[in-house]
Amino acid sequence: MKLCNRGADGHRIFILLFLISIPLFFIPTANTQLLDSCSTAADCGSGLYCGNCPSLGKTQPFCTRGQATIPTSIVSGLPFNKYTWLMTHNAFSIVDAPLLTGSQRITFYNQEDSVTNQLTNGVRGLMLDMYDFQNDIWLCHSFRGQCYNFTSFEPAINTLKEVEAFMTKNPSEIVTIIIEDYVHSPKGLTRVFSDAGLDKYWYPVEKMPKKGQNWPTVNDMVQNNHRLLVFTSDSSKESGEGIAYQWRYMVENESGDPGVVPGSCSNRKESKPLNSRSSSLFLMNYFPTIPVQNEACKEHSSPLADMAGTCYKSAGNVIPNFVAVNFYMRSDGGGVFDVVDRMNGQSLCGCSTVTSCQVSPMSFS
Ligand SMILES: *[C@@H]1O[C@H](CO)[C@@H](O)[C@H](O)[C@H]1NC(C)=O
Ligand SMILES: CC(=O)N[C@H]1CO[C@H](CO)[C@@H](O)[C@@H]1O
């Protein structure tokens, strides 16, 4: 039997909050709803921000979703691989990031807010490109396996410390990091993660399911403090440093432009076929090769929902565990947040969206 809450959309809750707020604040215009017009985020209700989408002909700013639902706060106790998480592609490649080497940067940007803000908004997966640079490990959006001043962002430890601070403050949250790994300095990655204080949350590679079995439940992972999953694209790091080689644990369909062709969802060449059952995690890439801020809201509207259906079929009816996007907050309303909620609803309780699932008695917040 399906246990879905009937009519449990934000609507009723909003009206309730609205009615409560009137006597308290006497501001009848407060708590503007999704899609209402706005001039700043303060005009919009909680979890919303003030966005726009000129590429869909919407010239006036309006309230759009800006925060993910944390699925474990509604349904807990299931294996980690039953959940879908929002992931930011090149989480570090942030518009307006300071120029630490003094050189102008010549590269593409993929996000607009800090990693701390991304995590606070419910992003639980970060894609980071790591390089040897200036006798340290840096995050760079570069090419040919080498970082230059003009493609550099910041020392990796800065971002990893943001992750550490978030995980320490939020002891029941699980975070996944996927490294595009160009680091050759011996034990360089091991050192930077441990210097950031992240080794205490490390999920041991020897405990990762290797034959497509279920992962432990999210509750077990939290109880054991195995809350940080790190994957590298460099296969030698698994035996060398105990860092999981991504392609042993995960299938991934094609990224970049081939990943956004409607009706097609092919695996990228490093990945096993999407319908392979020998990996229990599935990452769905959904971003064009060249990121364009003003186009992202269009990409995150109906084409994303359609693609989610296509990839679900290609993967043999498996729902993605990670949906990786650029400019994650951009949408024409619900965006990637709604898509992830629908995926979680389907896989966690068989309901149309996760907010319709009945709260499980064992839920932790
Ligand atoms: C890169 O930046 C550093 C300062 O951080 C500077 O010392 C170095 O000369 C720069 N390299 C080039 C090639 O501009
Ligand atoms: C190798 C593999 O699994 N490829 C599949 C990727 O998805 C498309 C459908 O979108 C299938 O046709 C391929 O077989």
Automatic annotation (TrEMBL):
InterPro entries: PI-PLC_domain (IPR051057), PLC-like_Pdiesterase_TIM-brl (IPR017946). It comes from the Eukaryota. Keywords: Membrane, Transmembrane, Transmembrane helix. It holds the Pfam family PI-PLC_cat. GO terms for molecular function: phosphoric diester hydrolase activity. One of its GO terms (biological process) is lipid metabolic process. The chain crosses the membrane at residues 12-30. This is PI-PLC X domain-containing At5g67130.
